[in-house]
Design brief:
- Helices cover 44% and strands 9% of the residues.
- It contains 13 helices and seven strands.
- Strand 5 and strand 6 form a beta hairpin.
- Helix 1 packs antiparallel against helix 13, helix 2 crosses helix 11 and helix 5 crosses helix 9.
- The protein binds glutamine (GLN).
- Glutamine (GLN) binds next to loops.
């Protein structure tokens, strides 16, 4: 199938003044949501101000518009999984990631050990910790340092600027990382990791600790939506096929065990992280990033979901929505 040239089916965002008005409305519409709680999973993240809230839209043309705390830095956390996966899809190819990591939803929490046991040691998909670490293990590089350099440079190319590590968040997670170490050891026991599990967990923890803001994240999402071209820098970061693969796995598992609800309500591939970020990518149109640290019990920002739902409807992003054609002969 991949030998056939792909025809795509995409559209445009509304006129830019309307996009700006809808972003402002989405912000106001979600500001009164105070449900959820800041994560306690990583001690350094539990200190976050729960009232922070930012939204940014980046169009594939390179235009961006934000509301609220768009410049506030936060660590990527699980959102890094999406972009590392795209880089690895290019590096090792569609078939290898399909075989080694998988694309199906586990139906379990992101840090589930049970999901590995239930599936004969197969990680199942790259958006849960087991699959994300199996993906990071496939990153090119003979040493952990080389793998880390590849990841840091690759994610920076998605953002269009050099992304730096939050050393406090990294240190905090590195000392409380027993569960991820256990997951990596379990994968090793099933012969699913070809590299040192401790080194893989370390690179994975670093990728989670990279700092972005909502503006960066919207540009990263727009790059996935733009056939792999960063709309700010014009750089082809990954091929369009890697974006296609990545958005498909985001649709199946971008919001963990709530991915079905997200797709049902919002209808756009997205990815969340425990620091409170969510990125959504509307193919051919752009990226939406939200940041708000209060999370639901699966680890997804509550305000972020509300704001993205609002924008999906108002900007016409739902991939599954259609209207009766005006020239339908039955009208
Ligand atoms: N670094 C976190 C972890 O691996 C990321 C989890 C998340 O964002 N859901 O546990």
């Amino acid at each position: 199938m991949r030998s056939v040239d792909q025809t795509v089916s995409t559209g445009d965002l509304p006129e830019w003044d309307r996009v700006k008005a809808f972003v402002d409305q989405a912000y106001r519409h979600s500001l009164d949501v105070h449900d959820g709680a800041v994560t306690t999973r990583i001690p350094a993240l539990s200190q976050a101000d729960p009232d922070l809230f930012g939204i940014c839209v980046a169009e594939v043309t390179g235009r961006t518009y934000g509301a609220g705390d768009v410049d506030h830095p936060f660590s990527l956390q699980s959102i890094s999984k999406a972009f590392v996966y795209a880089l690895v899809c290019e590096a090792v190819g569609h078939d290898v990631v399909m075989d080694r990591v998988g694309v199906n939803n586990t139906g379990q929490a992101f840090d589930s050990v049970m999901a590995i046991e239930l599936n004969d040691g197969h990680p199942m998909n790259p958006m849960v910790n087991a699959g994300a670490m199996a993906t990071t293990a496939l990153v090119p590089g003979d040493t952990p340092e080389a793998k880390w350099a590849f990841v840091q440079q690759g994610l920076s190319r998605f953002a269009g600027r050099d992304l730096r590590l939050d050393s406090e968040v990294y240190a905090s997670e590195a000392t409380t990382n027993q569960r991820n170490l256990a997951i990596a050891r379990l994968l090793e026991s099933y012969d699913r990791l070809d590299v040192d599990p401790v080194a893989v967990v370390d690179v994975y923890t670093r990728q989670c600790s990279l700092l972005v803001n909502a503006h960066d994240l919207a540009v990263m999402g727009a790059t996935l939506a733009d056939g792999g071209v960063n709309p700010l820098t014009g750089e082809q970061v990954v091929p369009a096929s890697a974006c296609n693969d990545t958005l498909a796995v985001l649709a199946t598992n971008g919001l963990y065990e709530r991915s079905g609800e997200w797709l049902f309500e919002i209808g756009v591939p997205g990815k969340s992280g425990v620091s409170g970020g969510i990125v959504a990518a509307a193919p051919g149109k752009g990226g939406i990033a939200t940041f708000s640290p209060r999370l639901d019990t699966a680890g997804n920002s509550v305000r972020g979901q509300r704001a993205t739902a609002f924008l999906s409807r108002s900007l016409g992003l739902n991939l599954f929505a259609s209207k009766v054609h005006p020239h339908s002969r039955h009208r």
